Amino acid sequence: MQNIPLDQIAIHQIPALRQQTRKQRRQLSRRQLRQAEIAVANKMLKAAEIKKAKKIGLYLNDFGEVPTQALIQKLIQQNKKVYIPMIRNMNQQLVWTELTLNHLHSNRLAKHRLGMQQIMASRGFAIATLDVVIMPLVLFDRFGHRVGMGGGFYDRTLAKHPYRPTRLGLAYDFQQVDGILATQIWDQNLDLLCTPIGLNRF
Questions:
Q1: Residue 141 to residue 8: CA distance in whole angstroms
Q2: Contact call for residues 116 and 151 (beta carbons, < 8 A)
Q3: How far is it, in rounded angstroms, from Cα 92 to Cα 120?
């Protein structure tokens, strides 16, 4: 059978696709969000990369992403250390601060001006501390190309460090595009991606 070539999705097409997908995420019901949260947590905990990892970077969902609280709680209960990103204003790169269940349950978190939740700390750990970094995204394709929210924080941080933790994305299945996402030189690809339906390795 002849392979059908995939269309490339150009850079100028991405903003409209990003907006459309974010709108679709916001329309999900609480029940759909909870189902996705549990399904993704269960699949992630079975992944070999997560099983062997001791230090895991993971975001707190704030913009319609797959909820991560269930996964965070299960990881901490398994005695794994979970770190969430904090933006360094001086260079707009990410550093990582350890998250505890006490932080979650007591709401001891602060909002960055861009909207994400952070632990207020004077300093954080470099990405080299992590075994796995789990990244949010808005769009992805079958080759592991990822489109984030547009700030470039993960791309910038990963591009500046020679150490390469396993890069894992979380998404809903409808966030996959049919074609190939055009990439730029600083874009950082995924090694794995987990959706409520399954785990993909690239």
A1: 10
A2: no
A3: 16
Strand partners, 199: 194
Rounded (10°) CA dihedral 34, 167, 87, 171: -30
Residue 40: how many CB atoms within 10 A of its CB?
A: 23
Tokens 């609480």 found at:
30
CA angle 96, 41, 30 (to 5 degrees): 100
As a dihedral over the C-alpha atoms of residue 18, residue 22, residue 25, residue 26, rounded to 10 degrees, the angle is -170
Q: pTM of this prediction?
A: 0.89
Mapped onto helix, strand or coil, the DSSP state of residue 42 is helix
* C-alpha to C-alpha distance for 194 and 169, rounded to whole angstroms: 6
Instruction: Please tell me the predicted confidence (pLDDT) of residue 194.
Output: 97
How far is CA 43 from its chain centroid?
Answer: 15
The pLDDT value given to residue 7? 84
CA atoms of 94 and 166, how far apart (whole Å): 16
**Rounded CA separation 109/147 (Å):** 26
Nearest in space to 103 (alpha carbons), one of 124, 129, 82: 82
Instruction: Report the alpha-carbon distance of residue 158 to residue 111 in Å, rounded.
Output: 23
Q: Which of 42, 135, 131, 30 is nearest to 85 (CA)?
A: 135
**In the block, which residue shows the tokens 């505890």?**
100
